[in-house]
Amino acid sequence: xxFFKKIIQLVYSQYLLxxxxxDKNRVNSILDxxxxxxxxxNISLKIxxxxxxxxxxxxxxxxxxxxxxxxxxxxxPKIIKLASGFPYLKNLDNFLKANLSxxxx
Amino acid sequence: xxFKNLNSFDDSxxxxxxxxxxxxxxxxxxxxxELFKQKKECIILEDGPNVNDLDFSNxxxxxxxxxxNNGATPLISNNGGPIIGYGQGSCVGGSTYVNAGYFSNTPExxxxxxxxxxxxxxxxxxxxxxxxxxKSEIKVNTDQLTSVDNDSxxxxxxxxxxxxxxxKCERYSSGIVGEEKQNMNKTYLSYLSENGVNILHDTxxxxxxxxxxxxxxxxxxxxxxxxxxxxxxKNLFICCGPINTPFLLQKNRLIDxxxxxxxxxxxxxxxxxxxxxxxxxxxxxxxxxxxxxIYFMREFEKEGALLSAAxxxxxxxxxxxxxxxxxxxxxxxxxxxxxxxxxYQIKSNSHGQIKSFLNNPYVSYSFDEKDTLEIKKAIERTSxxxxxxxxxxxxxxxxxxxxxxxQKEAMxxxxxxxxxxxxxxxxxxxxxxxxxxxxxxLTDFNGKLKDFKNIFITDASIxxxxxxxxPQATIMAFSKFITKNLSNxx
Lengths: 105, 490
Ligand SMILES: Cc1cc2nc3c(=O)[nH]c(=O)nc-3n(C[C@H](O)[C@H](O)[C@H](O)COP(=O)(O)OP(=O)(O)OC[C@H]3O[C@@H](n4cnc5c(N)ncnc54)[C@H](O)[C@@H]3O)c2cc1C
Prior knowledge:
The complex is a heterodimer of chains A (105) and B (490).
Chain A: H1 2-19, H2 24-38, H3 43-66, H4 76-83, H5 87-102
Helix pairs in contact in A: 1-2, 1-3
Chain B: E1 4-5, E2 14-22, H1 26-37, E3 42-45, H2 59-66, E4 73-77, E5 84-86, H3 95-98, H4 108-116, H5 124-137, E6 140-141, H6 150-161, E7 166-168, E8 171-172, H7 185-194, E9 198-201, E10 203-211, E11 214-222, E12 228-238, H8 241-251, E13 263-274, E14 295-297, E15 305-309, H9 314-320, H10 326-334, E16 339-347, E17 351-357, E18 360-366, H11 369-386, E19 391-395, E20 403-404, H12 407-416, E21 424-426, E22 429-430, E23 455-457, H13 472-486
Parallel strand pairs in B: 1-9, 2-3, 2-12, 3-9, 4-18, 5-21, 12-23
Antiparallel strand pairs in B: 4-5, 6-8, 7-14, 10-11, 11-12, 13-16, 13-19, 13-22, 15-16, 17-18, 19-20
Helix pairs in contact in B: 1-7, 1-13, 5-13, 11-12
Bound molecules: flavin-adenine dinucleotide.
Flavin-adenine dinucleotide (FAD) binds at residues 22-28, 45-48, 68, 87-90, 94-96, 98-102, 204-205, 239-242, 244, 248, 427-428, 459-460, 470-472, 475 of chain B.
């Protein structure tokens, strides 16, 4: 699960920092709280979310190779925007964003 | 007296109890309470945790712990409708612990329709007596407006301005600020536990063993250490809620297929930005006891539509706004006190069926086009009610709809939204295993499962149809009706 925690951090920390005016403590606490909950998700939800995160991770590797001249390692915002064109992927992204919001404190 | 779990019974793996009730929600607690009154031996087995052991500091963590399927049981449309997120509690007290606690009974005209269609033998007068009995056992009150209920106050004032009918909500409530809600935990379950009835939490029923049309025993898992136990019994009452009751029976191959009878309400949630600060709820804590809305706008209740205030804590508003742009979400965080949220509840015409994916339930439903019309009305009516000098914009739960700044823009949205792009939720499900006057009926008028002489269903699954109102009281009344009817034959 540590691997997926890392992907969640990579994918969503920029999104959260943007929302919460770069308040790193708050963003870290949201991610920690959410991750604690993720470990309690039932197996089918865990599988679906982990597959989604894995998909984002693999596409990111492709993007690093294709856009090597940009010298960027994090293409996740672009990938999420593209994924939003596909209803089920958009639903998953929304589900994660809604859940992250609920875990703020 | 504290509720127990299976760790308290370490020396034995086998139990033999006259009546077993699976699920401690509205249906299960009422059934146990009635059995206890009839001096019958009983025990409640509850999958979810004991709420007294929880830390309430984070809303998200609590929703994941206290809701079935972590708060995400999907209703998936098989004909192009939206995915609807369905919420149901899973803890001691079931959904009554997490719910808003509104007390309503099914209106006479709906009840008479059920009776006429031969879906129930319970007459409205008898039903009303049962409701009175519940009111004599559990405190029902209206709550007072406090400084965090400005959203309710605004709803009241705007409804009055249009001369629309608005009334205080009745709640299962002590009426005492800070300790209002009277869920099953504080009422029937405490009473039962004090009188020696075991209510076992973290106890999941996995398997129902049957022989020659009779249920004989259960295989049960202690969720704290995954140890298995065997429970023998004379009678089995299944009260796992309108999705999990048919799911458990399907999993055990005790029913083949359920009919398309699952009915539900749609919560169409809107977020308003007001020009002046109105929201002084700064809490980030999970508190299902605090009243959510003080009023229900009932002008369109005959059509099954009710409007009330929704949770005003920032995490709930942000989560509802998750599909909007980051700019909107940033503004909600920055100007939280200008935002309020309301629920327009719709009695859906759509029907669904319980299915399974990777050993977890979901509902496959067919979206009824009449619901599109109801949603159109929801947009038009809420815009008419709310748009005034004091409102900046409304956010409707339609993807990419952005700020709606006037009634004209709302009318335009109501004519042009796509059903697939709706973001809807539901917390009231029912009728998945109701009696049907035909040979396919899974249950009889007494909730007895077809082909089994000692399995009874006494939860939301057997409600004869869509109540159009908050269903808990109706579920409890039916649970009482069945358990009283059975008293001589058990
Ligand atoms: C957020 C929310 C707000 C609501 N607000 C209101 C309201 O204001 N007024 C109103 O009238 N209604 C409201 N409702 C609906 C109402 O609470 C439910 O309709 C009612 O509680 C359903 O009763 P039930 O007995 O059918 O199921 P539940 O109360 O859901 O209880 C079912 C129980 O069975 C347990 N269970 C399931 N499977 C197993 C198993 N295999 N082994 C052991 N246990 C199992 C579950 O964990 C759960 O605790 C609300 C619901 C929610 C979720």
